[in-house]
Amino acid sequence: MTPQPDALELEDLVMHFGPVRAVDGVSLTIPRGRVTALVGESGSGKSTVGRCVVRLVEPTAGVVRIAGTDVTHLSRRQLRPHRSAVSIVFQDPAASLDPRMLVGEVVAEPLRLSGRRIPRRDREARVATELERVGLRAEVARRYPHELSGGQRQRVSIARALISEPRLLIADEPTSALDVSVQASVLNLLADLQRDIGFACLFITHDLSAVEYLADDIAVMYLGQLVEKGSRERIFARPAHPYTQALLSAAPVADPVRQRQRQPVLLGDDLPSALDPPSGCRFRTRCPLAFDRCASEVPAQVGIGDGMAACHLVQPDGSGPDVRAAQTSEVLS
Ligand code: SF4
Hints:
Elements: E1 8-17, E2 20-30, E3 35-39, H1 46-53, E4 61-66, E5 69-70, H2 76-83, E6 86-89, H3 93-96, H4 103-113, H5 120-133, H6 150-162, E7 168-172, H7 180-197, E8 200-205, H8 208-214, E9 217-222, E10 225-231, H9 232-237, H10 242-250, H11 256-261, H12 292-296, E11 301-304, E12 307-310, H13 323-332
Parallel strand pairs: 3-8, 3-9, 6-7, 7-8
Antiparallel strand pairs: 1-2, 1-4, 4-5, 9-10, 10-12, 11-12
Helix pairs in contact: 4-5, 4-6, 5-6, 6-7
The site of iron/sulfur cluster (SF4) has 13 residues, from loops.
């Protein structure tokens, strides 16, 4: 039996907007049915990766393979048969849903764009099923997006993304524009749908606490490059890269006792500009453990199990740097 292709493969993906090196050599594989969270601060290039996958922007270099097909250089027309294989949910449903279209038309649009002729009655039935699957009543199809709440609108976006039965869903900060009170319910919905339907997902987020709900694997991005990859269990238990350790130390945790014991690592300065990234390790201007070599030599990716971390101090067993200990000794000295 031939092995099933991975849902998504990125090989050395590069996206430069003129002199801005937004994405600079990202390689990532998402097996079928698995969820990878792509985590990083705003400006790290993570949303640009998602946009390259759905070809909203044309990558400068590298390969994008969806379900085994290289889609990097396909024309719009050649792309059409593959379009239903991948869908995207954007951050802000108010901006991504056409306000002049009824919700039913919005949700059915991917079917229309696929070019397949589907009788109206069947189309309406599929829309109703999809709306109910995301927790909305079928009658919502006859309303306009602005008549709904933010959370309901994001449910409409999810119904629209799933109606073409994609193998891969790109969820780009799907809850960050929503009220805090509805964020958890939309995340839970995505997690339930993913388990039921089994699509693979690239979940783009700056919120590490959201990752705990959904992700099987985590990829951490800093200034256009991946600095660490690994299973969620390993990364939460033993983050290897100083940047991942700092992000995790600052992420809120549900347990109030653990929350009080947290010692967030303060990274100081903002993310440097992608116009002129630091030499050597790009994280060195904010890394509490930086030393001479970090400015002159780009750190190699050290394999840790199925994942990796790119830091001069990381050992193949994942041991090495500990920014929390470094910060504590600095405070004590
Ligand atoms: Fe810090 Fe150097 Fe490791 Fe980069 S390579 S993360 S600057 S210790």
